[in-house]
Design brief:
The structure holds two protein chains of two kinds.
Chain A (H helix, E strand, L loop, with lengths): L14 E11 L2 E12 L3 E5 L6 H9 L6 E6 L2 E3 L4 H6 L2 E4 L11 H5 L6 E2 L2 E2 L1 H14 L15 H14 L4 E5 L7 H16 L3 E5 L5 H5 L2 E6 L2 E7 L5 H9 L21 E8 L3 E8 L4 E5 L6 H8 L7 E6 L2 E2 L5 H6 L2 E4 L3 H5 L6 H6 L3 H4 L8 H14 L17 H14 L4 E5 L7 H16 L3 E6 L2 H7 L2 E6 L2 E7 L5 H8 L4
Parallel strand pairs in A: 3-10, 3-11, 6-9, 9-10, 15-20, 15-21, 18-19, 19-20
Antiparallel strand pairs in A: 1-2, 1-4, 4-5, 7-8, 11-12, 13-14, 13-16, 16-17, 21-22
Chain B lengths: L6 H22 L3 H19 L6 H26 L7 H15 L7 H24 L5 H20 L4 E2 L10 E2 L2 E2 H19 L1 H11 L1 H6 L4 H27 L1 E2 L7 H11 L11 H20 L4 H24 L5
Antiparallel strand pairs in B: 1-4, 2-3
Helix pairs in contact in B: 2-12, 3-7, 3-8, 3-10, 3-11, 3-12, 4-5, 4-6, 4-10, 5-6, 5-10, 7-8, 11-12, 11-13, 12-13
The chains are: A alpha/beta, B mainly alpha.
Chain lengths: 509, 336
């Protein structure tokens, strides 16, 4: 293993060519003979809905899956990549969405996990430290190499993941939705870094669901659908419309702006007046009416998430007022918030949302067990399954098994529908959703937006906390923008533009 | 880059992958309970072949009586383990409450109902202390109950001056029979049925699974995690008191070393029964089968004349084998 890439370094020409990749699971072919070529010095955006075959193809290239047939050539030589180790030996590294590091160790140890600099069997701590510092500086992040991983934010975790791949001198870097947890500045840093690595001759595969990122970062686009590679070419030839049409196979209508509804005049379902919880947010005024979808937009760390947590009683207000459905006062905890008609979809679905190992039915009904039980607290399985089936149809939850299959077996989008369904079953009148479509593919995302619009029509008040401008532009009736803990702008949905959102989210307060 | 260096490991790993698929299908198809049932059948068949006395009705009664105290402790412990907690103090609780009974009832010569009440109150107190420390002070449950394990064993010795106290006129919870079956067996079955129902069909029971599966998520959907766990510790404490009475009744004596080390059998039975030490998974039925396997092996080994030392070895082997097999189901079969 050599040291981390330095800007001066230029790698020799490199080409990876996959020919006729086929793969079946349980007798069903999911990849029907895909050809894919990637070259050093190019960033290829890999697009497609979940289940389109892009993950399968990427996993074959990285060695996580073995193809049923097909060949892979590197610089014209056939290679066989049957395990991730084979892939790594050939310089193919994946930055996974899930964190795969050691939380109790330091940043530096994580960066060099398995490859600590050593001499005579002894770890060379000063060199470890120095090299970690240099890599982090390269990434443009202020992160101390001796910080403990567990104390870091999601964004910082990801930086360490990327740093770790760079240490291994990768020739092909595969990014799997790397920006889903990053703030706009961090995204800019990452893009700058990706561009530099590209210029040094690294081949980059960039998987994303955020289509707006594509023109900003990609040189080429490949689109998967139903196990075929349906479109590929230079990014200049791919408009937003053409990408979406290639992904869905349907003619695309431009997203309508929020179904603006003027809720003023009626008493708001959720109201915050000069609410403060230093150091997270200060003097926040916010109103969400019944039948309205309000976006609380800002960069990561702007305080919007904390406002949502405060509404659900997870973070006490220092001063200011909170009124929920006409009742004054902040809930003292989730249990009380629930009783007052609130529902909360947390930002970290895996750690705070899913009851891992339990069934989809239990995951969907868990917030409503008290209502669904008899007076003695007895639950009937049949009742629960009936409720699950009801929401499965209504929310278009795609589950291959029965009502007792474990939640873990569903895709991200469908898990999110279950978590959302939890609060619908509980008949919550005010929903607070933190990043409702993070890690959700384009198709399921559109379905979730449809569900939210229908819910608004059914007179539910919805507050969406999001760092995704595309998302708030697409569905919100009103967008409240925060920056540095304060509200900097309130924009009616039909007047909102990407530029104004970006400006307000970066406004100094 | 030549293809050669990758060739030999490749064919090997390809073969391994093919073999793995077959193994995976096998493991994914079996439920924990089904597996335990097969295992129990093997154990029963083995001892039935080795000893002619094994299949006697009398012997079945012996096995059930021998595991009755273990069961009454293992069932609530199953609930705690599903919630992601532990109670190692259950056996000390039983010794302590048995001693309370003997002292208050004056060895069975005085007021027996008062003695029973004292034992139950003592058990609830142990549960209260454990629950308070775990849910309010937030001490890890393993550490808390390791502490109370020592404290209540010590208190039992202090109360009796380290002596064993004879208890007379109190055998209804032990050997006394109803329709030819010892009352202790009815108590065991009653606790099993009630707790199985509670765990499976009540909001409280399902909340226990939710907390064990993901405590943060459970809290965010409005479940009162601490209250639920606290109640489960109280329940465990209460049944520790019941077990103390049963033990005293069976031994016709209260000993400060009664049930010494029984907590390990409890954990063995629960884990053998398929409960996950990480929480979120387990059933009373599984624990029943776990207890049945332990009880049958102990009994069978006595019948074929093996020393009690070997029984301890066997218990350890069974526990490790069962957990290792279960772990294989998770890692290889990919199901939980």
């Amino acid at each position: 293993m050599t040291a981390v890439a330095t800007p001066s370094r230029k790698r020799p020409p490199f080409e990876l060519r996959a020919v006729g990749l086929r793969k079946s699971f349980g007798g069903v072919e999911v990849l029907h003979g895909v050809d894919l070529t990637i070259q050093g010095g190019r960033v290829v955006a890999v697009l497609g809905e979940n289940g389109a075959g892009k993950s399968t193809a990427i996993k074959i290239i990285s060695g996580a899956l073995t193809p049923d047939s097909g060949q892979i050539f590197i610089n014209g030589q056939e290679v066989r990549i049957l395990t991730p180790r084979d892939g790594q030996a050939l310089g193919i590294r994946v930055i996974y969405q899930e964190m795969t590091n050691a939380p109790t160790l330091t940043v530096a140890e994580n960066i060099f996990l398995g490859h600590l600099p050593h001499r005579y069997g002894l770890v060379r701590w000063s060199e470890t430290q120095r090299r970690a510092e240099r890599i982090l500086a390269d990434l443009g992040v202020r992160l101390h190499p001796r910080s403990i991983m567990a104390d870091l934010s999601v964004a910082q975790h990801q930086i360490v993941e990327i740093a770790r791949a760079l240490v291994a001198d990768a020739r092909v870097l595969i990014f799997d939705e790397p920006t889903s947890a990053l703030s706009p500045e961090e995204v800019e840093h990452l893009f700058a870094l990706i561009r530099r690595l590209r210029d040094e001759g690294v081949a980059i595969l960039y998987i994303t669901h955020r289509l707006l990122e594509v023109p900003a970062i990609a040189d080429e686009v490949v689109v998967f659908r139903d196990g075929y590679l349906v479109a590929q070419g230079p990014v200049a030839e791919f408009s937003h419309k053409r990408i979406v049409e290639a992904m869905t196979g349907e003619v695309y209508e431009a997203p309508e702006h929020g179904h603006s509804r003027d809720g003023s005049g009626i008493e708001p379902a959720l109201q915050l007046v000069a609410a403060s919880a230093p150091p997270w947010f200060h003097q926040v005024d916010l109103e969400v009416h019944r039948g309205e979808i309000v976006g609380l937009f800002g960069r990561l760390g702007c305080g919007a998430l904390e406002v949502g947590e405060a509404v659900f009683g997870l973070r006490p207000l220092r001063s200011g007022r909170m009124i929920i459905l006409g009742q004054e006062g902040q809930p003292r905890g989730p249990e009380q918030a629930k009783r007052r008609g609130l529902g909360f979809v947390p930002v970290d679905r895996k750690h705070d949302g899913l009851l891992a190992g339990l069934s989809v039915t239990e995951n969907l009904t868990v917030a409503s067990w008290e209502h669904l039980a008899s007076r003695l607290g007895i639950l009937r399985r049949r009742d629960l399954v009936a409720r699950y089936e009801h929401w499965r149809t209504k929310l278009a939850i795609r589950a291959t098994g029965n009502a007792h299959q474990a939640i873990d077996t569903l895709s991200g989008g469908n898990q999110q529908k279950v978590v959302l369904g939890r609060w619908l079953e509980n008949k919550s009148a005010v929903l607070v959703l933190a990043e409702p479509t993070r890690g959700v593919d384009v198709g399921a995302r559109a379905e979730i937006y449809d569900v939210l619009k229908r819910l608004a029509e059914e007179n539910i008040a919805i507050l969406i906390i999001s760092t995704d401008a595309e998302e708030v532009l697409r569905i919100c009736d009103r967008i409240v923008v925060m920056s540095d803990g304060r509200v900097t702008d309130v924009i009616p949905g039909h007047l909102a533009t990407m530029a104004r959102l970006a400006a307000s989210a970066a406004a100094m307060t | 880059m030549s293809t050669q260096p990758y060739h030999s490991p490749v064919t090997l790993s390809a073969t391994l992958k093919k073999g793995k698929a077959r193994v995976r299908r096998f493991f994914a198809g079996v439920s924990t309970e089904g597996m335990l049932l097969v295992f129990l059948a093997i154990v029963v068949a083995f001892f039935a072949l080795k000893s002619e006395y094994f299949f006697a009705l009398n012997n079945l009664r012996n096995i059930l009586l021998a595991v009755s105290v273990l069961s009454v402790l293992a069932f609530p412990s199953t609930m705690l383990i599903i919630s992601g907690n532990f109670d190692l103090s259950v056996a000390s609780n039983a010794a302590f409450t048995g001693m309370l009974f003997a002292l208050v009832s004056e060895g069975g010569k005085g007021n027996i109902p008062l003695g029973v009440a004292a034992a139950i109150a003592g058990g609830l107190a142990v549960g209260f202390i454990n629950g308070f420390l775990v849910t309010v002070v937030r001490v890890n449950s393993l550490i808390t109950t390791l502490g109370t394990l020592a404290i209540f064993r010590g208190l039992a010795k202090i109360l009796s001056n380290g002596q064993t106290l004879r208890v007379q006129g109190f055998d209804w919870m032990g050997k006394a029979q109803l329709l030819g079956i010892p009352v202790a067996i009815y108590i065991m079955l009653g606790v099993a049925i009630i707790l199985a129902f509670v765990l499976r069909n009540t909001v409280y029971g399902r909340n226990i699974y939710a907390i064990g599966a993901n405590a943060a998520a459970a809290r965010l959907v409005g479940i009162r995690n601490h209250l639920t766990v606290f109640i489960t510790f109280l329940l465990t404490g209460f049944l520790g008191g019941v077990a103390g009475l049963m033990l005293t009744s069976q031994l016709t004596a209260a000993s400060p070393i009664a049930g010494l080390g029984l907590e390990l059998s409890v954990v063995s039975a629960v884990v053998l029964g398929g409960a996950s030490l990480y929480g979120g998974r387990g059933t009373i039925l599984g624990t029943i089968l776990g207890v049945a396997i332990l009880g049958t092996v102990n009994n069978g080994m006595i019948l074929i004349g093996l020393s009690s030392f070997w029984q301890e070895v066997a218990r350890g082997v069974i526990l490790i084998a069962a957990v290792a097999f279960d772990q294989l189901r998770v890692t290889v079969g990919g199901n939980r």
